[in-house]
Specification:
This protein is mainly alpha-helical. It has two domains: 13-75, Winged helix-like DNA-binding domain superfamily/Winged helix DNA-binding domain (Arc Repressor Mutant, subunit A, Orthogonal Bundle), CATH 1.10.10.10; 80-213, GntR ligand-binding domain-like (Four Helix Bundle (Hemerythrin (Met), subunit A)), CATH 1.20.120. The chain has helices at 13-26, 38-45, 49-61, 80-101, 107-121, 126-141, 147-168, 177-187, 191-213, and strands spanning 35-36, 65-67, 73-75. Helix 1 (13-26) packs across helix 3 and helix 2 packs across helix 3. It is elongated and about 55 Å long. 23% of the residues are buried. GO terms for molecular function: DNA binding; DNA-binding transcription factor activity. This is GntR family transcriptional regulator. It comes from Ureibacillus chungkukjangi.
Length: 214
């Protein structure tokens, strides 16, 4: 049983365990269909099974784990159809979110986004890239005034995060040039170009993933 990195140690036990397991999945250290034992996780954190069970239930509800007929938990795996549906839904919702967010970007926002893209340019660890990439998209779309739409997009990104290790780990180059093109369009206040770049960004991510798993 691997040792988990403790995340947010000031949180409740179940939240700490939840965040630690989620991080290992995001980094690709826990693979699709890999089983997780409540007892082993409890021993790892030196806690009872109660907070572990709570963490597993939350991970299952968010799509990170799957409870099977033998009552064991496994890291979620997805079919080609599920992946296609997820990215097609991303395309619809995130383009609308970007369109609604666009008038609300301030100079400070753009400096922040640009800095994150520059930071991604120098990242060599795939796990760090995955986490920063997700945060970049979250901040970019949180300016959308329709908070219900933002909530739906954030839920979708839990699924996106599960696939990210598969398409990014072991790549020699991370897909950061598309982020640069997007930020340049935002700097120039060019909504049409921003939407076009963002659409191609999602389409390319979908193609990379489908190519990887097929």
């Amino acid at each position: 049983m691997k040792k988990f990195e403790v995340v947010n140690s000031s949180s409740s036990l179940s939240e700490t365990i939840f965040n630690s397991i989620k991080l290992e999945i995001l980094k690709g250290n826990l693979k699709p269909n890999q089983s997780l034992s409540q007892k082993e996780v409890a021993d790892n954190f030196n806690v009872s099974r109660i907070p572990v069970r709570e963490a597993f239930v939350k991970l299952e509800s968010m799509g990170f784990l799957q409870k099977r007929i033998n009552s064991r938990y496994y890291v979620q795996a997805f079919s080609v159809k599920e992946i296609e549906d997820l990215y097609d839904t991303r395309l619809i919702l995130e383009l609308e979110g970007l369109k609604m967010a666009f008038p609300h970007y301030s100079k400070i926002d753009i400096i922040l986004y640009d800095g994150m893209v520059q930071q991604m340019e120098h990242i060599t660890d795939s796990g760090d890239y995955i986490i920063l990439n997700a945060k970049f998209h979250e901040l970019l779309l949180e300016k959308c005034p329709n908070k219900q739409l933002v909530a739906f997009i954030n839920q979708l990104w839990d699924g996106v995060a599960l696939y990210s290790p598969s398409i990014i780990t072991n790549q020699s180059h991370f897909p950061n040039h598309e982020h640069k093109e997007l930020i340049n369009a935002i700097k120039q206040n060019d909504l049409n170009t921003a939407l076009s770049v963002y659409e191609q960004h999602i389409v390319n991510a979908k193609k990379r993933l489908l190519k990887y798993i097929q």
